[in-house]
Design brief:
Blueprint (H helix, E strand, L loop, with lengths): L2 H16 L13 H9 L4 H16 L8 H28 L4 H15 L20 H4 L2 H24 L5 H23 L3 E3 L3 E5 L4 H4 L5 H17 L4 E3 L13 H14 L2 E11 L8 E10 L9 E2 L38 E3 L2 E7 L6 H8 E3 L6 E3 L2 E6 L9 H6 L1 H9 L2 E6 L5 E3 L5 E4 L6 E3 L3 E3 L5 H4 L4 H20 L1
Parallel strand pairs: 2-3, 3-4, 8-11, 11-12
Antiparallel strand pairs: 1-16, 2-15, 4-5, 5-6, 7-8, 9-10, 12-13, 13-14
Helix pairs in contact: 1-2, 1-3, 3-4, 4-5, 4-16, 5-7, 5-16, 7-8, 7-14, 12-14
Length: 496
């Protein structure tokens, strides 16, 4: 079979493992064809990268085209360059010594995954670990080393299966059995032995299912408010104390709109509810700023007595979609407009109190970032070095942009990993779905279907354990440093 077809096959296997087809186990074999191609060196690396990125990105992220076709093309080009660099680095490192092919492959791919979390182009959607979202037992290891550890195990298993199936090295079977025994055993231990406290707080998450084409339509505004009233009334019947609205639920500049604020206050007083909601916001810009106002994707906690919490501003913005890249470095880019909002960045997590419980929110895309959620979930005291755990996390989002595609599902499963990494419960309110409540073990306690109009409730499970991952969250930098060192050494050795 031509080498490029092997690359195509690998991309297809990995793509299918990511989709909601319950084929996550394909991730254990998806890299094998690519390993064969890279080791044989029978293909041009740029061609392999092009085929791999077009198929893998195109299948997993096709739904982006529903919002912006140019955006999908841009992502494909961006990741083509990334994978080309990865394949080139693997090739260079393996040329130093054949024994470095497997370590080089694993280290490069892990470094690639981790570096996706940084910079204004950060887009960590292509972590191997997310393929295993269906397997609750297997994802428990995320509390030891996050999604990077799960990805490491997946890559090691691919290498061992490559040795067994392609190289006919049967010793690999022993290692495979050993890995799975330890991996599954740890998962079973966690699910049955970790301490947990069950409470019955009066918390609800709302899924109003407002179509995107109606959300900012002035003629539909009253209908939207009426739907919120109906759902709040239902929440009150269930003795709810706090109800969580989705991202940008109030489609006005709420802090400056007296009608909307009055409506919200009357709603809370009518049903005796606290409301946590997202909304757009702006403040006056400093004199040296190119614009007169600074715009934010914001959220806040509103209480029946009229008090309003400190506003939370979204910290991590979707590249290009929510903010053009490198505006601070190149001010002329403010003039480019592709429909993006050009929000400003927030400056860290926020914490809110409801009764005796504390929670911290994230907005939409931020759910993809493990280290940010660590800061939200488990704060470190600068003076004592001790850790304090938040009672639960909240994620609000609006995935109406992506209709009934796989996009909302791919986004929602990240909540499972953030929950396990921090051993904390997550309440996720999505405008059109998929809303869900995930316990500290990554189990979905309840969820709503796409475009279902409903409230969701579930007991709060608190796990007091501070995960190992919180102490060693920095460890993937070791992989990055090793790759950089080996890559540089490959050039030095050639010169020698």
């Amino acid at each position: 079979m031509p080498p490029l077809l092997w690359v195509l096959f690998s991309a297809l296997l990995l793509s299918l493992s990511r989709l909601p087809l319950h084929l996550g186990w394909l991730a254990f074999t998806g890299w094998i064809p690519l390993l064969y191609v890279l080791e044989s060196r029978k293909v041009k690396l740029w061609q392999a990268a092009m085929i791999f990125s077009l198929v893998y990105i195109g299948v997993v992220m096709y739904w982006i085209a529903g919002v912006t076709f140019l955006g999908l093309i841009g992502i494909c080009i961006f990741y083509f360059l990334f994978y080309w660099l990865c394949f080139y680095a693997i090739n260079r490192i393996s040329r130093v010594s054949g024994y470095l092919f497997y370590p080089g492959f694993i280290l490069v791919m892990l470094s690639f995954e981790y570096l996706q979390n940084f910079g204004e182009t950060r887009f960590p959607w292509f972590n191997n670990a997310y393929s295993l979202s269906d397997y609750t037992v297997l994802i428990q290891a995320a509390d030891l080393g996050g999604v990077i550890l799960i990805s490491l195990l997946i890559l090691v298993i691919n290498v061992l299966l490559y040795e067994v199936l392609i190289k006919k090295n049967r010793r690999g079977l022993l290692y495979l059995v050993g890995i799975f025994i330890l991996w599954i055993g740890y998962g079973i231990y966690c699910l049955h032995s970790l301490p947990m406290q069950k409470q019955e707080p009066k918390i609800a998450i709302m899924q109003p299912s407002i179509p995107q084409e109606e959300k900012w339509d002035e003629e539909a505004y009253q209908q939207i408010l009426h739907r919120y009233d109906t759902l709040c009334a239902k929440a009150a019947e269930d003795s709810t104390k706090l109800i969580i609205f989705p991202e940008a639920a109030i489609p006005v500049y709420l802090m400056y709109d007296n009608y909307a604020k009055t409506y919200l206050r009357e709603l809370m007083q009518k049903y005796n509810l606290e409301i946590f909601t997202g909304f757009p916001h702006f403040t006056l810009a400093p004199d040296n700023h190119i614009n007169d106002e600074l715009y934010y994707n914001a959220a806040a906690l509103f209480k029946p007595d009229g008090s309003i919490s400190e506003l939370y501003y979204k910290n991590i913005l979707v590249p290009v979609g929510e903010r053009m890249l490198w505006l601070n470095l190149f001010p002329f880019l403010w003039k480019l407009q592709f429909g993006q909002a050009n929000w400003e960045f927030g400056n860290g997590p926020a914490y809110y109190q409801t009764d005796s419980l504390e929670f911290s929110p994230s907005i939409c895309y931020e759910l993809a970032f493990a280290e940010f959620h660590q800061k939200m979930a488990i704060r470190k005291d600068k003076d004592t070095g001790s850790y304090k755990k938040t009672d639960f996390l909240v994620n609000i989002t609006n995935d109406a942009w992506f209709g009934t595609s796989y996009g909302p599902w791919l986004h929602s499963v990240m909540a499972k990993f953030r929950a396990v990494e921090n051993r904390i419960q997550i309440y996720r309110s999505a405008n059109t779905g998929i809303s869900l409540i995930v316990d500290p073990f990554g189990r979905i306690l309840t969820k709503a279907s796409l475009f279902e109009i409903t409230n969701l409730y579930a007991p709060l499970i608190i796990c007091p354990k501070i995960p190992v991952y919180r102490y060693i969250y920095w460890y993937p930098w070791i992989f990055v440093i090793l790759v950089a060192g080996l890559f540089i050494y490959s050039f030095l050795k050639k010169e020698a």
